[in-house]
Amino acid sequence: MLAEVGRVQIGANEAAILSLVRRYGGHKWDPDQDLKSSPPQHCVDPWGCEHDRRMLSDYTYSLEIQTWWYPTWVTWDPAWTGPNGRRVAPWERALRNALNAIPARVRPLLGMRDWNVAADIRIRSGRVFGVNAGALLEGRPGWHLHEWVRATEMPEENLQSRSFAVLGGSLTGPPCCGGVVEVYLTPKASPEEVRAAHALNTACLTSLRGCDGSCEASPLTLQYLTKHPDPHFNAPKCP
To answer: What pLDDT, in 10s, does the model give residues 34-60?
Structure first.
């Protein structure tokens, strides 16, 4: 799914991506609805508010693949539904509760590592306006988020001259704790930059050993920065 979403180009016709959406059980919704109906009255960052307005889409197709139906940290609300709004069956909820009772360090030995992979394809005026995808991975020391975002412009004013940027950070809320690698691209990004953005060590999802953090989960992305150190901000430094 990540590979296929990675090939979706800004400006592509909406009809060209519908088979991809259907193949992975995607659903259509409008994440910008609240911003459209109640725009902010007072902007602390005028550029940021104008950027948000420029980036509004008509609607979004969201695709998601989860293990064990939920992330570990979901509150057990009986009204909670799974992907695509489907009500979760009692046996699925029981399975998830059983998983939560197993210590994280033991789960991989049972083939039960937790992870979540998701993607959004944003549409405006019948064409792809933005694409983002990422994976949230459970590792030995905690969690790791690898995400890339392709849009017509960068998310911050001081990045507008760039076509590629890597931002690092930390997961401070649930799930806690771990590293974040976010990669932002515009259509002007080079093929090498696109490969670096999309690179994810999938062994972190499937191997018994798992990964020890950002340097193992996003190796090609962070290796790219050793050759091109300029386009990054707070990205992890790897040996």
So the answer is: 888 877 778 888 898 889 889 999 999
210 phi-psi bin (left φ>0, alpha ψ -120 to 50, beta other) = left
Domain ranges of the chain: 2-233
Residues 6+ apart with CB under 8 A from 129: 10, 57, 122, 123, 151, 152
* Distance separating alpha carbons of residues 224 and 178, to the nearest angstrom: 21
**84 touches 25 (CB < 8 A):** yes
Coil/strand/helix, residue 175: coil
How confident is the model over 111-157, as pLDDT tens digits? 777 788 999 999 999 999 999 999 988 876 678 889 999 999 999 88
Joined together, the tokens standing for residue 145 give: 């988020």
Tokens 């064990």 correspond to: 68
